[in-house]
Amino acid sequence: MFPLAVLVPLAPALAFIVIGLGGERLKRLESGGWIAVAAAFVALAVSLLVAWAELATPGHFSDSSYTWLSIRTTAAPFPSGLSLVMGVLVDPISALMLIVVNVVGAMVMLYSIGYMHHDKGLPRYYAELSLFLTAMNGLVLSDNLLEFFLFWELVGVCSYFLIGFYYERPSAASAAKEAFLVTRVGDVLFLLGIFIYFATFATSGGGAGWAASGFKFASGSVPFLPPHASTPLLTVAGLMMLAGAAGKSAQFPLDVWLPDAMEGPTTVSALIHAATMVAAGVYLLVVVSVFIGFTPDDQLAIVAVGGFTTFWAATMAVVQTDIKRVVAFSTVSQLGYMVLAVGAGFSMVGLYHLFTHAFFKALLFLAAGSVIHAVGTQDLLKMGGLKKQMPVTRWAFIIGGLSLAGFPLFSGFFSKDDILGSVVTAAQSHPMYWPFVALAFAGTFLTGYYIFRAYFLAFEGDQPRDSSLPHAHEGPWVMQLPLIVLSGLALLAGYLIFSPAFDSLFIQIPGTALHLPPTYGTFDLELSALSVALGLSGIGVAYALWGNGRVFTWAADSPVQPLRTLLLQRYYVKHGVDWLGRRVIYTGARAADFVERFIIDGTIHGFERSFAALSDRMRRVQTGVVSDYAAYVVAGVVGLLVLLMYLAPWIVAALGGS
Amino acid sequence: MILDEVAFASLAAIAVVTALAALLVRELVHTILWIAVFFVTLSGIYFLLAAPFLGVLQLGVYAGAVTILLLFGVMVTRKRIFSREAATGIGPAALVLASVLGILVVVSASGVPTQEVPIRGYDVTVLSTTLFNDDGAWLLLLGLTMLGALAGAIYLVREGRE
Amino acid sequence: MTSLPPVDFLALSGALLAIGIFGILTRRNFILLLISVEIAINAAILNFVVFGAYAGTPAGVSGQAAAIVLIGLAATEVAVGLAIVLALNRARGSINVAEATQLKL
């Protein structure tokens, strides 16, 4: 039976093929842009339908799969055979993700029509963006880790293409390579983790389900941990999952690529590096925690990484002068919150924040894009006074910013408070979490500060600081509509928490032992007040320093300057990696090259030469003089005679004959 | 009988000496002479072995035709033949090799059982009957070979050949 | 007629064979080569005759029959060999075997 959900990745795939093959001839359709938009909206419609059906019936999930490789065997380690599947799994989690991916995808696609109108290479852009949508939807709908990995890689490839869209710029090409390589590190470890899970679960005697389908997330009434599974191995596997998620979601130490990925068009940043691809890492962690489970050691590691990254990225965001970079670091920081929540055991809370964050972060990026489109620069220090000229964008940015800062009643407020409340609850039984919880709270203050610093610098004041900037005005309706829609969602998405659909995320699915997490932590008024106060004070400090067109700079000899430099240089992480590469890895490479060239190749060449010399020597037997040949014949005959007369009896006796 | 032994000993000695001499003398014509004597000696040995017909045949074919053939060959290719061409470099080795071969052959051959009876001669009729009846095929083949050799030799030495 | 042990004759035949082979391997003059071959062939024919003689009737007569055929064959071979000598002489002007070295790599 053909599940309806397959249409969701399929529509953009068709768009990809059509635009990819014939985009240049579709000038009237914005070089295929409208086709991409249509496909994205089709995907959106279908995914809304599917998600509605899914979330409306609590405790329901549907899984249909197609076996593409089946090996019948009874040999260990697969006593019931091995089969690999490609499938579509629609459960509350993937339904939520479908909404996220396709709403933001459709909005960004529409927005691109206006934003990218003056760029070259549009067919390539729309084709790659459509392919990305396909891959992301496929990832969300996968029902086993192998398929998940397939789409994961595809998403990474599309990210590479799109970051490097302006490939003639060396910085863009380099950023694309960096993104791909850094996530690669995570991906390799992720794959190792998959292998460990496969080896662990496929060999279990605990039911034909796991053994037969290897990677599947859920397969009926199967205890998720086979009795003989070893915890150290599972811990390692969990760490591998964390590594993969850290790569894709730009958590420390694999976060270096995300700020540089801003080389791509702003729409790409909005879709991929704010709402969807980077969310895939968090989605992975959620899925693994639900269907497989993390060991306590893993959880500590995840909490540590998430909490640390939250603070780490926020500190770097406060000094950025590029409007996109501010939002980029903000993304890393917010992803840290989600990872933190999942690590603490509250994966649904993390998922919820993912949901709200997608909308307001995409909103912020698109608003920034609107600004960039209008004034032609990304440098905050040159902007100013845009509130008069671009009201829609201004309010969009404000709404996004308030959501981000966790201002009461905006969507970010609900989700971020949930996270903070949950991790505090968790920390009470896991005291090791406290430092990271503290970092998360500190991050809240910084969040409010940096995003409103950006707002004030761009919009407040009377006129631009750089008078050579063109007169700004709002973009076309295709750009404003998404801003409005996303603003609405940034305001309202938070209220999902009160709808019955939300509860379906927490229902134990009967008949399975799906490891669903507990409900979100209790709503603690004091903690809420604390986090709101932190956010507001951050905004207040920002107003004090940057409001009304002020520009605050430290004195050149201030003791803060080294700290500022440290932050601007992003803690010299990249310098460290470069050093590592140059000193350690390059030296190793040179040693290996030496071994290859002189020892291994040398041996082979030595063989070559000895054989050539031997053959040269042997050539001289052929003198051409017949007498010599006759001599050889006679020698042969003599040898044969000796053999037959004297040696043969020996040999026969030795072999036991007669 | 002693006569036999003396005869054999002398004939054998002469055969070996003439064969060696044929190979080692300087002048090619002298070689031909030596080889003629060799053939005659062999014929004598055949007589000793109660094969008179064969002995006569040896005289006629070898000491007669083959020797003349060789002499003609020597005469026609006379240009630089008075000097004995230098031997190839493997003289001593060849000697050893050849000797070893000879010894081996003899040793192996002497293992063949033979009747310890004195040799008796045959009637020529017996010989011819055997030759033409039992071994007639060989004879036919010999004839064909000779025919082919004749054609080949004529072809090889025809005029107009570069 | 004779009561000599066959090994005497075989020794002679072996010695002649050795001489013939020695000649084949060492002599450079083509005609000398032919002569050496003749010596060797004669040794072989002698062998046939010896065994024929010592085999007793009626089998022994095959030895002589074989010898007759072989003598004819050897003579044929000398004839062809001389034809080759003549051709070689015409082609190169010498009958030095060591100069006819075109059969090499």
Describe this structure as you would to a colleague.
The complex is a heterotrimer of chains A (658), B (162) and C (105). By secondary structure, chain A is mostly helical. Helices cover 69% and strands 3% of the residues of chain A. A two-stranded antiparallel ribbon of chain A has the order 1-2. In chain A, helix 8 (231-248) packs antiparallel against helix 11 and helix 12 (296-317) packs parallel to helix 18. The longest helix of chain A has 47 residues, at 573-619. The N and C termini of chain A lie far apart (77 Å). Chain B has 162 residues and is an all-alpha fold. Helices cover 74% and strands 0% of the residues of chain B. In chain B, helix 1 (2-24) runs antiparallel to helix 2 and helix 2 (28-48) runs antiparallel to helix 3. The longest helix of chain B is centred in the middle third of the chain and has 25 residues, at 52-76. Chain B starts with a helix and ends in a 6-residue tail after the last helix. With 105 residues, chain C is mainly α. Chain C has one domain (6-92): Helix Hairpins. In chain C, 74% of the residues lie in helices and 0% in strands. Chain C contains 3 helices and no strands. In chain C, helix 1 runs antiparallel to helix 2 (30-54) and helix 2 (30-54) runs antiparallel to helix 3 (61-92). Chains in contact: A-B, A-C, B-C. The interface between B and C is large, with 89 and 80 residues.
- CATH architectural grouping of chain C: Orthogonal Bundle
Radius of gyration from the alpha-carbon trace of chain A, in angstroms: 31 Å
In the predicted model, the low-confidence regions of chain C spanning at least 5 consecutive residues are none
Q: What is the rounded distance between the termini of chain C?
A: 56 Å
The helix count of chain A comes to: 24
How many angstroms does the end-to-end distance of chain A come to? 77 Å
Most extensive protein-chain contact, per-chain counts: B-C, 89 and 80 residues
Provide the succession of SSEs of chain A.
Answer: HHEEHHHHHHHHHHHHHHHHHHHHHH
Summarize the main sheet of chain C. Answer: none
Fraction in helix of chain A: 55-70%
Radius of gyration of chain C, in angstroms, nearest whole number: 17 Å
Helix-strand makeup class of chain C: mainly alpha
